[in-house]
Amino acid sequence: MKKLLFLLLIAPILGFGQDTIPGTKILTQKEAYKKNMMKLKKEYKVNHKDKIKPGNTSFNSNDRLAIKDVIDAYGFYWDSNNLDGYLSLFTDEAIGVTFNAKGKKDKYYIKSDEQIESSKKRMDFFKINQMQRRHMMANTLILELSESYAHIRQYMTLMTTNKKEKTEILTPIDYIFKLKKVEGVWKIVYREINLDKPLDLPLSKWKN
User: Fold this and answer.
1) How far apart (Å, rounded) are the C-alpha atoms in residues 155 and 195?
2) What is the DSSP annotation of 137-205?
3) What average pLDDT does range 75-100 have in this prediction?
4) C or N: which end of the chain has fewer Cβ atoms within 10 Å?
5) Are the C-beta atoms of residues 149 and 40 closer than 8 Å to each other?
6) How do beta strands 166-182 and 131-145 pair?
């Protein structure tokens, strides 16, 4: 009986002593992306607090020009049905966000197999039906900018010319882009599409 009581008393101590190695948490793709973005934003707040304001000259002009190149290429690549070029603008873990007519949020990985196939089908549809899209980029507002992270809003007017007969404005779009610098090259890690009105070909069918 005394031996049993002794074992019961020391068991928690032994158990505590053995539990010295914490369990290793395997990050999912979503968690890894979130952790990386938090790290980049923390770096920005530490090194560039209150510096990004309209008219402020405390910025790297090369970075701003490179970011503009990415945004302009986004429109040109999509409109010319250059899927490889379009995808090259994003990191492998890039997140896409759209909203349906009821305002429901749809979040996905832009370079997932399913999404790449969806983008290809959308481009093929435009070619087959002779629908020439034009992304007319306009105002750019830089919200955050550090040596490795950027957060911007981009106004754009989406136009279409159908069968080379009729050109019309489909809708203005308010894009939200987040980018990071990868080995000296700016890449999109987050893209959100906010439409003023629904498109002729809903994004919920084939997201672009």
Assistant:
1) 10
2) EEEEEEEEE-SSEEEEEEEEEEEEEETTTEEEEEEEEEEEEEEEEETTEEEEEEEEEEESS--SS-TTT
3) 96
4) N
5) yes
6) unpaired
Q: Are 146 and 49 in contact (CB under 8 A)?
A: no
**What global pTM score does this model have?**
0.74
- Asked whether 100 and 202 are in contact (CB, 8 A), the reply is yes
102 versus 61: which is more confidently predicted?
61
| Residue spans per domain, the chain | 39-45+60-195
CA atoms of 1 and 32, how far apart (whole Å): 53
Which pLDDT score, from 0 to 100, does residue 12 have?
Answer: 46
Given a contact cutoff of 8 angstroms between Cβ atoms, the answer to whether 169 and 156 are in contact is: no
Q: CA 162, CA 201: separation in Å to the nearest integer?
A: 13
The DSSP bridge pattern shows strands 149-162 and 185-195 to be: unpaired
Work out the pLDDT band at 205, boundaries 50, 70, 90: low
Q: Which two tokens stand for residue 171?
A: 């809708």
135 three-state secondary structure: strand
The CATH fold assigned to 39-45+60-195 is: Nuclear Transport Factor 2; Chain: A, (3.10.450)
